Amino acid sequence: MEETVPGTQVVTRFAPSPNGSLHLGHAYSAMIAHDLAAKLNGRFLLRIEDIDGPRSRPELAEAFRADLAWLGLPFVETPPQSTRLDSYRAAAERLRGMGVLYPCSCTRKEVLEAATREGPDGPVYPGTCKGKGMEDVMAAPDGAVAWRLDVAKALAQTGPLSWEDERAGQQIAEPERHGDVVLVRKGLPASYHLAATLDDAADGVTLVTRGLDLFHATHIHRLLQALLDLPVPRWHHHDLLFDEDGTKLAKRRGSAALSDLRGAGVDGHEFVKKLRAGSFPAGISLGRP
Ligand code: GLU
């Protein structure tokens, strides 16, 4: 099995998607990534993950930068995902050449109806389009296809894999739990899994820092690294912030936007000091999903 390159400077990252304002949970995540790098004299990167089609709102990226500055978390920004589409296309082409991608025209509804088991992210794709030719697949009404990873075939090429989480320890990679995930979305050059894995490698990230809600995604990312000969980082999946009903804080559920706090004159450095000390606003606590 591959090993992390020893002796390299630690590089962490915060990789928000500009489809809503940052809130307290993001501030916590950014603070953890920043501090893990800072304590080892490393680098803390900001990467804007802006390839979410119409949900991406470019104007939010500027607010994200201002939020981090307000929090007192200095960062180095790497190119946003929208500037990296060629690298995603090239990787998809390479995976197609290896025979581990297949086209799929199923709609979300069809996947939900046909699924027979639950995976970490919901119903697992049952492989409806696996083994079909491009012609059969293109028969879908809108002609658009997604490209899915044939996980069994991919694993047969890589052999067993493992990965290391700083908190949870050594993990055996079990990407099959997810089924054949989408790597190229209909009408977009990459899914989150493909884009984030390529970007972390291109950005030289050595410690992928993110919330526990993405712990399971790492099984897929580890497989992609092996298929594409990418360096293998370590991971740090931190706890998440929950409100009093045990619901994860989310921008869509109306958690206060950092930009509003900033605009209202709240002291961002004090705000982070409290997070660092584990002191959260009333009703908010850390937990596991
Ligand atoms: N862009 C993702 C999000 O905003 C985070 C991806 C990651 O940290 O790997 O949820």
TrEMBL record:
Alphabetical keyword list: Aminoacyl-tRNA synthetase, ATP-binding, Ligase, Metal-binding, Nucleotide-binding, Protein biosynthesis, Zinc
GO biological process, one term: glutamyl-tRNA aminoacylation
Gene Ontology CC annotations of this record: cytosol
Gene3D superfamilies (UniProt xref): HUPs
Occurrences of domain Glutamyl/glutaminyl-tRNA synthetase class Ib catalytic (ranges): 9-265
Similarity comment: family membership: Belongs to the class-I aminoacyl-tRNA synthetase family.
Protein name according to UniProt: tRNA glutamyl-Q(34) synthetase GluQRS
Pfam assignment, any one: tRNA-synt_1c
Enzyme Commission numbers on file: 6.1.1.-
Gene Ontology MF annotations: ATP binding; glutamate-tRNA ligase activity
The species this protein was found in: Parapontixanthobacter aurantiacus
